[in-house]
Design goal:
Radius of gyration: 32 Å
CATH topology of the largest domain: Glucose Permease (Domain IIA)
Number of helices: 22
Largest sheet: 8 strands, antiparallel
Strand content: 15-25%
Structural class: alpha+beta
CATH superfamily of the largest domain: Glucose Permease (Domain IIA)
Number of domains: 4
CATH class of the largest domain: Mainly Beta
Distance between the termini: 21 Å
């Protein structure tokens, strides 16, 4: 039996065009990242119908990002276990995939799109280790806060236990160039292990040992020297590459082109031996002499520019940073700033970006918390689930993607609630000149890593509550979006409540009459195996297909199959004997359960909930028994049209999924009692 995760995985794969349309699949902290051969085979609207899918975004021409939240790894594994995926990929897909090993940049990407995709996918696989290391740092900073051990004390002066604890997080940041060398090479299509080996050579005791006999040249910065050793008769700068990210990135780019050239020259039979051999022979010296110093220079240059802005006005920078992030993160443009943060820590001993960045994160989490509260008040369970996941991932993990893709990018008004929180938080960060002394993910757990942590706490609290209060007061949706959601939720609740009441009553009746019926209740005709039931029209007019209705929810059949009637009369009557399940307070809709087991929703007009009952009069109430022909609703068509709404009246079988088919019967004119829908029951297998 398929699990919920497997069902969702199959749903995603089907709506991306199937296994043959997938050329690659990876994932990050919250997103499944696909490359597809034919983008026209992707059905984004269908993908988003699964509540587990928080959003779908395109990246470049052939890239698709499916937002899944914190459980993304489970869906990634589930997709790879499906037929045609993983080890069972079709031969055509295998060929496309294997060609990427040395295939590099494809022409199908715009160069700008690919540059940012390259940066994003280079850092993405390392995210897990960085997050774990950042929480170890936070634990050590907390111990510093409580006076247990000075976090910034020289390592040799700390007890052995704390030296080991520092080694646990330094392993990630110090050897980050090796990780980045591997992931960058893999993204480009070069050999990832060669990509890792190139920067690894610069961490060996042999390389660092040359510093002991090198020439020492003082720099413009007091206390900072340059160490130069002569290798092959040429000057080589010996420096610490721990935590540097630009040198391995540039080295991976050059490696890609070198491997591509070598594969054209070297026979395929011996490429496995000589391509990596010659690559290492060329790239390690090239990196040590040129690429490494150049990469460090680029990183330091960007750092110095931002430092200059920060030195000129930390206040201005603290406001600009949180205002940029809401637009950078959706495009993946925030990764270069993350690299700069790490460089800042390594060169300056602190970073001035992370603190202000926290204002954006907590404004974002404030928005989703406001959405959660509003959803709870509305009893909107699907949105409450999305908001809960986004809030917890943010407050505890510092990850904003579930909030961003699950809510902020889906409702345009949410940015109007987000940005004021960013400004307020940024102002406070600027007043306190907040700095970070370790690279961490900005969550509640990492507050002690900021200095002054009290000013930082005040800043993120102001950002959080500003955005949350704005959502609670002004909502996160437009008025039309809010009214539509509330109307649908009300109708669903009424129908669900009545259905439950009817089940209880039916069970009681069956129990009371059990002796006569051998303990079983009679089965309604519409639900009997193979039965076909006709549903009469509840009002006069022209019957048309639902796809003519100017509302996507009705036209798509999402609310049930059926028919729409362009009315010529002004009264909706019961099409058959029934029980009233729900009556909208605005009088524009009524839900019925016919005695034959069919549930109907009769909805007069499109968006007529906004008329607040004007032009409508109801003649029944919930739980009332009605006979065929009894009046249900009287309406004024001219009032509907004067208000700017369509008078088309939807007659929907709301329990469509219980039946084999629900078929409309369009006609130029139908009267009450004339069949307009045919309902076929499912055919049960013989036992």
């Amino acid at each position: 039996m398929a699990t919920g995760t497997t069902s969702t995985a199959q749903h995603i794969l089907d709506n991306l065009g199937g296994p043959d349309n997938i050329t690659s699949l990876t994932h990050c902290a919250t997103r499944l990242r696909f490359q597809v051969a034919d983008p026209t085979q992707v059905d984004k609207s269908a993908l988003e119908t699964d509540p587990k899918v928080l959003g779908v975004m395109t990246q470049g021409t052939h890239g698709m990002q499916v937002i899944m939240g914190g459980g993304v790894a489970e869906y990634y594994n589930a997709i790879n276990r499906l037929d045609g995926m993983g080890e069972e990929r079709s031969s055509s897909t295998k060929a496309a995939s294997s060609s990427k090993e040395y295939g590099g940049v494809r022409g199908r990407f715009g160069w700008v799109d690919y540059c940012f995709e390259f940066l994003s996918d280079t850092f993405r696989p390392v995210l897990w280790a960085l997050l774990g290391a950042s929480l170890i740092i936070t634990s050590l900073v907390l111990l510093d806060t409580f006076g247990v051990q000075d976090f910034r004390a020289p390592l040799e002066e700390q007890p052995a236990t704390f030296q080991f604890l520092h080694a646990m997080w330094r392993s990630v940041f110090y050897f980050l160039p090796i990780f980045v060398g591997a992931t960058a090479a893999r993204k480009l299509g070069a050999n990832e292990w060669v990509g890792a080996a190139i920067p690894a050579a610069l961490f060996t005791p042999e390389f660092m040992g040359m510093k002991e006999t090198a020439e020492v040249h003082p720099t413009a910065v007091e206390g900072v020297n340059t160490y130069v050793q002569h290798v092959f008769g040429l000057p080589m700068v010996i420096q610490d590459y721990g935590g540097q990210v630009f040198p391995p990135i540039f080295a991976a780019i050059l490696l890609f082109f070198l491997e591509k050239l070598l594969k054209k020259i070297i026979p395929s039979a011996v490429q496995m031996v000589f391509v990596p051999f010659i690559s290492l022979l060329i790239m390690i010296p090239l990196t040590a002499f040129v690429v490494g110093p150049f990469g460090i220079g680029i990183g330091n240059g960007i750092t110095h520019i931002l430092s200059a802005i920060n030195g000129f006005s930390p206040f201005v920078l603290a406001i600009v940073i949180p205002l940029l992030y809401p637009f950078l993160v959706p495009l993946g443009l925030h990764w270069p700033l993350n690299a700069i943060m790490i460089i800042n820590i390594n060169t300056l001993g602190y970073d001035f970006i992370q603190g202000p960045m926290g204002a954006w994160n907590f404004a974002c989490f404030g928005v989703v918390t406001g959405v959660l509260i509003r959803s709870a008040m509305e009893r909107n369970r699907p949105m409450a689930n999305v908001a809960t996941g986004g809030m917890l991932a943010g407050l505890l993990g510092g990850i904003s993607e579930p909030s961003l893709y699950g809510i902020l990018l889906r409702f345009r008004m949410s940015y109007a609630r987000l940005l004021p929180g960013c400004v307020v938080g940024g102002i406070i960060m600027g007043l306190f000149d907040v700095k970070a002394y370790a690279f961490v993910f900005t969550s509640l757990l990492t507050i002690p890593a900021m200095d002054p942590w009290g000013g930082y706490t005040l800043g993120i609290a102001a950002a959080f509550f500003t955005s949350m209060i704005l959502v609670l007061v002004f909502d996160y949706r437009t008025k039309a979006e809010r009214d539509e959601v509330r109307a649908k939720l009300a109708a669903e609740r009424e129908a669900a409540n009545q259905a439950e009441d009817d089940r209880v009553e039916a069970a009681a009746a069956a129990t009371a009459g059990g002796a006569a019926a051998a303990g079983t209740a009679p089965v309604a005709r519409a639900l009997e195996s193979g039965a076909v039931t006709e549903v009469p029209a509840p009002l006069e007019g022209r019957a048309v297909e639902l796809n003519e209705v100017p509302d996507e929810a009705f036209a798509s059949g999402a609310l049930g199959g059926g028919v729409a009637i362009d009315p010529t009369g002004d009264t909706v009557v019961a099409p058959a004997d029934a029980t009233v399940l729900a009556v909208q307070k605005t009088g524009h809709a009524v839900g019925l359960r016919l005695d034959n087991g069919i549930d109907l929703l009769i909805h007069v007009g499109v968006d007529t909930v906004k008329m607040n009952g004007e032009g409508f009069e109801t003649h029944v109430e919930k739980k009332q028994k009605v006979k065929a022909g009894d009046p249900l609703i009287t309406f004024d068509r001219s009032a509907i049209e004067a208000a700017g709404y369509s008078p088309l009246t939807m007659v929907l079988v709301s329990n469509t999924k219980k039946f084999a088919s629900v078929t409309p019967r369009p006609a130029d004119h139908v009267g009450t009692g004339v069949p307009v829908i045919s309902v076929a029951a499912k055919q049960e297998a013989n036992v």
